[in-house]
Structures are given as structure tokens and as C-alpha cells.
Amino acid sequence: MWRCWKTTSSLMAQSEFRKRSKLTSVPTKSQNKPTTPELLPSAVASAMAGFSRKKKLLVGVSGGRDSMILLDVLVRLGFKRLVVCHLDHTLRGRASQEDLVFVRRQAKAMGCELESARARTTEFAAEQKISLELAARELRQAFFAKCAKIHKCRNLILAHHADDQIETCLFNFLRGTGASGLAGMKPVSKLGTLTIHRPMLGVERREIDLYQKLHRIRFREDASNAELLHARNKLRLSVIPAIERALGPGFRRAIPRAAEILRAEEEWMSSFVPEPSENLSCRDLRGMPLALQRRTVHRWLKSCGVPECGWEETRRVLSLLDTTGPAKTNLPGGLHARRRAGVLFLEKGTE
Q: How far is CA 45 from CA 124, 189, 206, in A?
């Protein structure tokens, strides 16, 4: 679904960049609490403490504020083998092309390698019968996996921050998700053989803005982020500011704290879920508590590649356990779940 190309630049440019930068290193030991301008690089340095500065790392870079600042901090911290990974979703016309030109120029200036690709997101969403948002996410994941294979690198660094975490938790809560969704994003997670690291997850947007102004970091502004057309934009631009006006800024710490608690409990509860197989035994499912039934079915649906599977899809599959009801239910992506001979299985729908 995409056309790939690659450019590589000399590490000499990265050396010159570090010489010009005001922040050449971040102290690892300090008797005082970091001042505000130090919070972001200190947080990233702490999260990346286990990595050698000579280790090759993939960095997801859209060209926006957050990813450009992450890249800047990593270079200033001395990471010498960064591969900038940029995917053009072809959703914003000429602006998307200009994003690539900008990212290519910045990667070259910082002495980073570049992997870029163009994806036909709208066509892919139509072909797979999935939402545009899910299509974009799946294409990004496939692109990152391809970058990892090309560079034989299993670590991907992304620029999600604390405000993204708040937005994700609220969004999932309003969708009626379970503990997994309410737990938000993990600081470290797996995507196939890739390990995803989010070193800015504990950093608030205001700290990122301060760093950007202090170091005059250039970035591309996505005009669609200011439009109240999508649910996430409404949360970011209207709902979250309204909550802060009503309850004060304390909720910005409370939600990530609740997410951290739920993450630990989710990991514990997930340890009871059996590994998914091709089919599910109705007898085994009926012998489980309802909470375990739901988790087992949800994991099975995800392992089978059912797109956008959630509460409703899980409920439909569990309804098949009732032998007095229908033996088949529709699922996203043109799939069906069916009960036959005491077994649940998936099949492709006929056109």
C-alpha cells in the first residue's frame, strides 16, 4: 500500500548539531529537583538510561511539535544512530508532501538516517472495510515493522506525552472500554517483535511547549488538529479545558495515576486468560466467570485479526453460547463468528 524510499546522511552533521546546541548533556545526578526547562530532557534521559548512545534506534517522526522535540532531545543526549521513520498517509494533500520535505531536511541536518513511505490510507480503509483512523494505525504499524526489518532494529521511540495519556484514557472511558483501555498507553509495550518506548509519557504538554520555545525547535503544524470534527479533537480542545476550569489542574495528575493503577491490575488479570487458539470451546467458556469469558473472547478476536473488536463484538460472540439463540453473528471486516458442534470459530463472509 505504499512506496518506500530511503536516504542516509553522515554522522558529521549530528556532531555539528550537538556542538551548536545549548544543551549538550543532561546531569544524571543532582541534589536539587530539576528546574522546569530540565524536566523534559531529564525524563527522556531517565527513560533511556538502559540504552547505549551507540545503539541504533528507530524514532517515529511526523514532523509535528512532539516528535520533532523528541528527536531534538535524543540527539542532544548523544544518541548517534537514530533512524527517523516518517509515513505520509496522503490524507492532507500538498501539506503531507511538505511534511516529508521538512522531515527529510531536519533528519539530514541532525545526521540521522531516514526511512519514509507513502500510504494510500483512504483506499486501504475502503478495501478492508475499516475506519480511516484504524487504517492509518495499521499502516503505521506495518511501516514501523518494515523499518525494523530493514535496519535489524527492535526498538522504536515514540513521542506520546502525559496529555496524550489523559486524552486516551478519557476517550476510552467515553467509549465504554474495560480496564485495558482505561489503563491507557504503556511506557514500554510490544508490537510484534518491536518494543515501543514512550520516554515522554510522564511529561506534560506545557513542559514540551517550554522546551520548544527555549530551543526554538522548528516543526510542522497539522491544521486538522484545530478542527472540532473528530472526537479526540473535541476532547483536547473543549472537554479537557472545561474539566480543568471546573476542577482545577489536579485532574491532570489523577488520571495518569489511575491509569498506572489499572495497568498493574490489568496485567495481573490478563495472566489468567488462556492463550488463544484457532477455535474456542463452548464448554470451556461456559465454565469461566463472566469477566474471564469476556477477556478470553476479546483476546481470541484480536489474535484472529478482527478489526476494531471491543465490547459489542465480544458480547455478540458470547451470545452464541446460548444454544436457543442464533448460531452466527456478524463481525467487522466482513467476518462471522459461528457456533457448530460445541465450538466457536470465525469465517469470511460471502460477498
A: 38, 18, 19
Query: Nearest Cα to 20, choosing from 312, 216, 201, 187?
Result: 216
For 175-203, how does the pLDDT look when each residue is reduced to its tens digit (9 = 90+)? 888 888 899 999 999 998 999 999 999 99
Tell me how far apart the terminal alpha carbons of the chain are, to the nearest angstrom. 23
Alpha helices in the chain (DSSP H): 11-20, 36-47, 65-76, 94-109, 121-128, 132-151, 162-174, 179-182, 205-215, 231-234, 240-247, 251-270, 282-286, 290-303, 311-319
Rounded Cα–Cα distance for residues 290 and 264 (Å)? 21
The 10s digit of each residue's pLDDT in 276-331 is 899 999 999 999 999 999 999 999 999 998 887 888 999 999 999 999 999 999 99
Q: Residue 343: inside a domain, yes or no?
A: yes
Enumerate residues 6+ apart whose C-beta is below 8 A from 310: 175, 177, 298
From the list 87, 80, 107, the residue with the least C-alpha distance to 8 is: 107
DSSP letter for 16, please: H
Length of the chain: 351
Q: Tell me the CATH number at 302.
A: 1.20.59.20
DSSP state of 202: T
What's the domain count of the chain? 2
- Domain encompassing residue 20: 2-160+198-226
